[in-house]
Amino acid sequence: MTTTRSPRPSTTAGHAAVSALAIALLAGCGQAVSADEASVTEDGAAASAAALENCGRELVLDSAPSAAVGMHPAQTELLLRLGLADRLAGQAQAGAQALPGDVADLAEDVPVIGDVMPPAREDLLAVEPDFVYSPTTYEFTAEQGFASIEQIEQAGAAVYVATGGCAERRMSGSVADLFTDLENLGEIFGVQDTAAQLVEQGQAELDEVASAIADVEQLRVAQVYVEGTTLSAIGAGVEYDILQRAGADSVYAPDQSAFDDFFAAPITPESLAAEQPDALVFSVYDDMHEAATRDYLTSTFPDMPAVREGRLIAVSSADVFPGTLGNISIVRQISEQLYPDAF
User: Fold this and answer.
1) Each residue's pLDDT tens digit in the chain (343 positions)?
2) Where is the signal peptide (predicted)?
3) For the chain, which terminal residue's Cβ has fewer other Cβ atoms within 10 angstroms, N or C?
4) β-strand 158-161 against 88-92: which pairing, if any?
């Protein structure tokens, strides 16, 4: 597979959701939106050029971008929280996920390009971006009609892919990849102080969860994805790291042969039933998908401890997108449902 997404449902909405699962923003992060004016010149340009490596490419910017596009609401949110609303030229895949209420108003006048899918090549280039920020490399699949990285660069824009969305990181991605992205974005846009505040806040939330569950007796947790009656296990990537940080004893792990080449693997209901997990974590892309998944799990595994004890934990598939604040909030969400007495 040449992209970083899989598996996918048959519907358009499903595609947007599973792309989150496969790659791999809640307002609860609560970071105030402000510009770090001390590191920005009067015309909004960065005080110095930024140079860094991203997904094996060298990225050099002579000045801070002034026409950025967030290729997913999670990326748009990060740009807004960095105080960059006036430097947004477009927001893509806006139909896939609503922006948190505390920043949504800031994007009211930002053109929407694409709905739940990445924008077509001509739609993206029409807003004349100088910086395109994406969760994965999938958004640049020319075969899908999207603008390739090369085409965007030829149009004069820089391309940044979330660290966890780089192909080489898909199997070993971690929640901390978000902090790398924030530090890089702070450098690129000259808003280092605001980026540092977001990093500090995110790390503090992770530390708080770790402290709360330090002495719990770990539950065995299986992370799965259900589409119809197709069942997949998730055993690597940022999804695995999220479970570890939430205090789970993961049924599926990167050292298992099923995950030698990809973070997800098809499994049979019989094999999952044999594991007898204490809890099941599954990602969903809307209320209907959650209801269908819960119905499948409860009817298929009535005697499983996870079902008997009511530990069926649904998480938003958008929160497993690489480089999202949801990567942090989902750790707390899962941990609180696994160990409610610890919080």
Assistant:
1) 333 333 333 333 344 434 433 433 222 333 334 444 434 443 444 445 788 999 999 999 999 999 999 999 999 999 999 999 999 999 999 988 899 999 999 999 999 998 889 999 999 999 999 999 999 999 999 999 999 999 999 999 999 999 999 988 989 999 999 999 999 999 999 999 999 999 999 999 999 999 999 999 999 999 999 999 999 999 999 999 999 999 999 999 999 999 999 999 999 999 999 999 999 999 999 999 999 999 999 999 999 999 999 999 999 998 988 889 999 999 999 999 999 999 9
2) 1-34
3) N
4) unpaired
